[in-house]
Design brief:
Strand order of the largest sheet: 6-7-8-9
Structural class: alpha/beta
Number of helices: 5
Order of helices and strands: HEHEEEHHEHEEEE
Strand content: 15-25%
Distance between the termini: 36 Å
Radius of gyration: 17 Å
Helix content: 10-25%
Shape: globular
Largest sheet: 4 strands, antiparallel
């Protein structure tokens, strides 16, 4: 994974870009996270940020990053007119949605799986991006009517909620598999062994 190759460079570089932070090579073929690699990702980002480096995290909705079904980044929408966006194919038994509406719903439903891990490692030097691919229409901004894109027509509600400052750094269980962090207005929970248990409880 590109993100891990760059994370290896973080101790000697001025900044880092971690791609597929909670998917691709941080996940198993069945779509679950690889807990060991996720733990290393968390620790690398935390340490690099503490050393004064800037990190940009790009996360995809769901267990993205497989070409097992042919096209790793299928186009969604009207290919004839070019009114399309790219989605990242999912690993595991569930396929990525094949319609724009399906992808927009999935991006909302799977957001916390990416946002909660980000909030575990977030500092003023760690930035978050969430989209199906890299273009603006792939999920980074709300869709205008008649335009196919990977994000719903309004901002994700989580983006507008007050978070407040963290009470401190993240805490982890002795084996490093469960991570929690408290913010003024939210409690964050991540179990690296089960991505679906990721939770943000708003206060």
């Amino acid at each position: 994974m590109l993100g891990f190759r760059i994370l290896y460079m973080l101790p000697i570089s001025c900044s880092g870009y971690t791609q597929h932070h909670v998917c691709h090579c941080c996940r198993e073929p069945n779509g679950e996270w690889n807990a060991t690699k996720m733990k290393y990702s968390f620790e690398s980002i935390i340490n690099a940020s503490a050393a004064g480096k800037t990190i940009v995290i790009h996360a995809f909705p769901g267990p993205a990053g497989t070409n097992s079904y042919g096209d790793m980044f299928p186009e969604i929408g009207d290919i004839k007119t070019g009114n399309t966006f790219h989605a990242a194919q999912w690993a595991g038994p569930q396929r990525v949605p094949t319609t724009g509406a399906g992808c927009r719903q999935a991006s909302q439903e799977r957001l916390v799986e990416s946002l909660a891990p980000f909030l575990i490692v977030a500092t003023e030097r760690v930035f978050f991006g969430y989209g199906w691919f890299y273009n603006m229409e792939d999920g980074y901004i709300p869709c205008k009517e008649g335009i196919e894109c990977g994000m719903p027509s309004t901002w994700f509600p989580e983006y507008s909620r007050p978070l407040g400052p963290p009470a401190g750094p993240a805490a982890q269980a002795e084996d490093g598999m469960v991570w929690t962090r408290e913010y003024l207005h939210a409690s964050v929970f991540v179990d690296l062994r089960n991505r679906s248990l990721s939770a943000i409880t708003w206060k």
